[in-house]
Amino acid sequence: MEIERKFLIAAEPDLGGASSVAVRQGYVTRPGDSVSVRLRQKGETFLLTMKSGQGLVREEHESRIEPGLFETFWPATEGRRLEKTRWTGALPGGETFEYDVFEGAHAGLRLVEVEFDSRE
């Protein structure tokens, strides 16, 4: 189970000691499907993720996959892809943040995602 909040960011924040990685991802499923199936490449790591549920609390299952398997299924994501740079760091309360700067069709979009242990 994951509890996450996303925030739209208008201006570039001070990222301090945050690290970054190039990300490309595509969705096998379509918007509105009850389960989301996503392929993601983060640097040299390839992942398959399934999410279900809605709102703040969702079930998430993620597995590393081989690059060849990623490339086999990548064509199924045509029209549902995005590219971004992801910055990761720690907030003063110890929570991890992920700051995404989107490229391509979504250029200019900036989001911060924070995962929490509880809804509060």
From TrEMBL:
InterPro entries: CYTH-like_dom_sf (IPR033469), CYTH_domain (IPR023577), NeuTTM/CthTTM-like (IPR012042). Residues 1-120 form the CYTH domain. It comes from the Bacteria. The active site is at 27 (proton acceptor). SUPFAM superfamilies: CYTH-like phosphatases (SSF55154). PANTHER family: SLR0698 PROTEIN. This is CYTH domain-containing protein. The lineage of its organism: Bacteria, Pseudomonadati, Pseudomonadota, Alphaproteobacteria, Rhodobacterales.
